[in-house]
Amino acid sequence: MERSEYFLNFKKYAKEIKNILKNYLSEFEVYVFGSVIRVSDEFKNRQKKLKVYDILFERFFDTPFEFHLLTKDR
């Protein structure tokens, strides 16, 4: 897929990312601005944070997206 496809359809991919996160987190926020930031207190659990990161990384490995998995206090 062309890199520009991701930028032209960023809302589509943001929704897909949100749907993936719904499977693993009960509360989170998604922000899109050049890169995507995840904010959830559930990321205080290191195992959960690593699992979600692995899933996102696997699905979006060959994309221009970056993922920042943060807790609300960071």
What does this structure look like?
It is a single chain. With 74 residues, the chain is of the alpha+beta class. It has a single domain (3-70), classed as Beta Polymerase, domain 2 (2-Layer Sandwich), CATH 3.30.460.10. Helix content is 45%, strand content 19%. A hairpin with a 1-residue loop joins strand 1 (29-33) and strand 2 (35-39). The model has no long low-confidence stretch (mean pLDDT 85).
Structural class: alpha+beta
Return the CATH class.
Alpha Beta
| Main β-sheet description | 3 strands, mixed
User: What topology, given as strand order, has the largest sheet?
Assistant: 1-2-3
Round the Cα radius of gyration to an integer and report it: 12 Å
Query: Could you estimate the helical fraction of the residues in percent?
Result: 40-55%
Report the sheet-strand fraction.
Answer: 15-25%
- Find the CATH superfamily: Beta Polymerase, domain 2
Topology, number of strands:
3
Low-confidence stretches: none
**CATH topology (level 3) name:** Beta Polymerase, domain 2
Instruction: Label the CATH architecture.
Output: 2-Layer Sandwich
What distance lies between the first and last C-alpha atoms, to the nearest angstrom? 34 Å
